[in-house]
Write a structure and sequence with these properties.
The structure is a single chain. The chain is of the alpha/beta class. It is built from 11 helices and 9 strands. It has a 6-stranded parallel beta sheet. Strand 3, helix 5 and strand 4 form a beta-alpha-beta unit. The protein is globular, with a radius of gyration of 16 Å. The model has no long low-confidence stretch (mean pLDDT about 95).
């Protein structure tokens, strides 16, 4: 277990570099994998170069594969629930993964595959367990349903000295993203408002780029 913790700590230490200053990680549900490359490029043109393509749709795996191979963005795989999901993400070329929660078998497979996965937490016990396993970045999920900014402020306070970083996701949009990013422990926020499923289906890449430009400009100094 000590070796696994050390390996996990090494993987997790790369999270900050991977985010590369991106304050927003779009959470993408896509139904047509051929749209993955133009979508990811549209977001990059708007200043967002890290994306999470979820496995919530049948097209998720192939969309990750296409975007990872066809763009320079850091393409992550979301909704990793099992070791098989970790394998699918790694085989598709994902740069990282995201999970709504965490479990020992999935954790072990992520370390075996050398895949950085940001696990979900909802309370103090979750956080303590993730810290004990070597994680240094976690996803607070579902953020708004778990009390929002006020809850995360109080929840993160006892762990501030550990250097733990949070990426809250769930119910976050243009109206409240800056409030989360104002918290010193929040490194980025996840959300679907930058690349709505309807605009993806329409292939409205210009509108998605415009939303990304607006979002990055509005949030660039949040928490500074």
């Amino acid at each position: 277990m000590t070796a696994q913790i050390a390996a996990q700590a090494e993987l997790s230490s790369a999270a900050g570099t991977l985010l590369g200053g991106n304050r927003i990680v779009p959470v993408i549900e896509i139904d047509d994998p051929t749209q993955a490359v133009p979508l990811t490029r549209a977001l990059a043109e708007g200043g967002i170069t890290v994306v999470e393509i979820t496995f919530r749709t049948p097209a998720g795996v192939e969309a990750v594969r296409a975007a990872a191979a066809g763009t320079d963005s850091a393409v992550g795989a979301g909704t990793l629930l099992t070791p098989a999901d970790v394998d699918a993400a790694a085989d598709a070329g994902a740069a990282f993964g995201v999970s709504p929660g965490w479990d020992p078998s999935t954790a072990a497979r992520a370390v075996e595959r050398g895949l950085l996965v940001i696990p979900g937490v909802a309370g103090a016990s979750d956080i303590q367990q993730r810290l004990a396993e070597g994680h240094s970045t976690v996803k607070f999920f579902p953020a708004e349903a778990n009390g929002g900014v006020a809850a995360l402020r109080q929840l993160s306070a006892p762990f501030a000295h550990t250097g733990l970083a949070f990426m809250p996701t769930g119910g976050i949009g243009a109206g409240n993203a800056a409030d989360y990013l104002a918290l010193p422990t929040v490194t980025a926020v996840g959300g679907s408002w930058v690349a709505p499923r309807a605009l993806i289906a329409e292939g409205d890449w210009a509108r998605i780029t415009a939303i990304a430009v607006e979002a990055t400009a509005a949030l660039s100094t949040a928490g500074a």
